[in-house]
Fold each of these.
Amino acid sequence: MNLSFEKKVALVTGAGSGMGLSAAQAFAAEGAAVALVDTNESAVRTAAEKLAASGHKAIAVRCDVSDEAQVKAMVEQTVATFGRLDAAFNNAGIQSAVSEVADASVEEFDRVNAVNLRAVFSCMKYELLQMRKQGSGAIVNNSSLGGLVGIAGRAIYHAGKHGVLGLTKSAALEYASRGIRINAVCPGIIDTPMVAGMLASQAEAMKEMMRDVPIGRLGRADEIAAAVLWLCSPSASFVIGQALAVDGGYTVR
Ligand SMILES: NC(=O)c1ccc[n+]([C@@H]2O[C@H](COP(=O)([O-])OP(=O)(O)OC[C@H]3O[C@@H](n4cnc5c(N)ncnc54)[C@H](O)[C@@H]3O)[C@@H](O)[C@H]2O)c1
């Protein structure tokens, strides 16, 4: 099993918190130079400084991934700093309010999916421009259990997360024979600041969802990071276009 990222460069969006932060720390621990990307500049700066202080190579990049020009600049800054791009975890995402479709708005649809879907496309586009030049690389997109099943009241979020899997599978086929692997993770309910917010603001809906988690607990961010690192590593060299559920059994019921 080879999980080493020595001499490799990794980029993580949404690295200021939750699964993104955990994945960035895990990439660094395995030897990668890491670009930590987020709209929350102080969070990524603090995290990058901590990594640098313990001997890792890390930069913080302020970037709103829903803005294509910022995404282009962010990938270019990463490559200018570290010379290449070997792994990317397109993870930044936001939640949507619980609402049935008839009461939801196109403005909310566009707000959420500018980040959760369109930005994954933009990030892949600029990452792949670099990886295509290199003839190597691995990308993991963060979808969700919401990419695999529907839940009443969550159509806007689930539409974007299903879309991420469509992007993942189609792009995976384009690059499979050119040394670039693209996959997705589909986390279940993970104990992050996003879920803490949902537990507070959508207590009833969340209680109902939690009843459907066979393992009987929330997931941890490091359990998702472990899957992301494996998918980006040479150990997953034959894994292409998969949507890997890491969900405590939620989607196998
Ligand atoms: N927590 C869960 O249970 C869960 C389950 C399935 C999927 N997900 C997905 O996992 C991903 C990470 O979620 P998390 O729970 O770690 O959330 P989180 O809120 O803890 O972290 C998300 C990070 O993304 C950043 N971000 C938000 N919008 C951004 C933008 N436009 N540009 C750049 N950065 C931006 C935030 O500042 C934050 O640091 C999201 O895509 C989310 O939809 C979460």
Note: The pocket of nicotinamide-adenine-dinucleotide is lined by residues 13-14, 16-20, 38-40, 43, 63-66, 91-94, 115, 142, 144, 187, 189-190, 192-195 (CB under 6 Å).
Amino acid sequence: MKCLIVFSSSHGTTEKASMLLCHFLKCDVQLIDLNQCNSQPDITEYDTIIIGGSIHLGSIQKKVKQFIKSNFEKLLTKRVALFLCCMNEGELAKVQFNKVYPLELRKHSIANGLFGGELLFSQMNFLERQIIKKVKGISGDVTNLNEKSIKAFANQLN
Ligand SMILES: Cc1cc2nc3c(=O)[nH]c(=O)nc-3n(C[C@H](O)[C@H](O)[C@H](O)COP(=O)(O)O)c2cc1C
């Protein structure tokens, strides 16, 4: 089985999660960072497409939205799994997940994952730092990446 993980990461956490996922998957996996792509990747040769991104101010990366839009019909003919990195947890995280991934794709998907997130001040620009300080009341890094959830997601696909 050939498996593709396509992701976009703003500060490196979704990339980290994608690599961990890759480690837990028992199939032939390729990783594509959408931020490094100038054109849409060709997904024809893969049986399973795993899509991941993160939430910034309520939205997922534009590159993830564009990937889904450009490949929508093809995705519906494949095994699809969706995951998200974000700091919100529980219901709030689920609401964000449902907002950023289209209903038809969610219905079609065989696994959905909420992997937690990280707040990495060294990776943020000035404005992002100000927002996080104000909204979260913190000024130091927070790591809340959920390895257990990544493993469970991988096990669903294995
Ligand atoms: C400016 C900013 C805004 C964010 N907004 C949200 C948000 O609306 N909801 C949420 O759950 N997490 C939010 N986060 C947390 C990110 O989802 C978290 O940092 C995630 O791990 C980022 O992953 P990435 O490095 O792969 O982009 C925000 C983080 C930053 C820096």
Note: The helical segments are 13-24, 62-75, 90-100, 103-108, 126-136, 147-157.
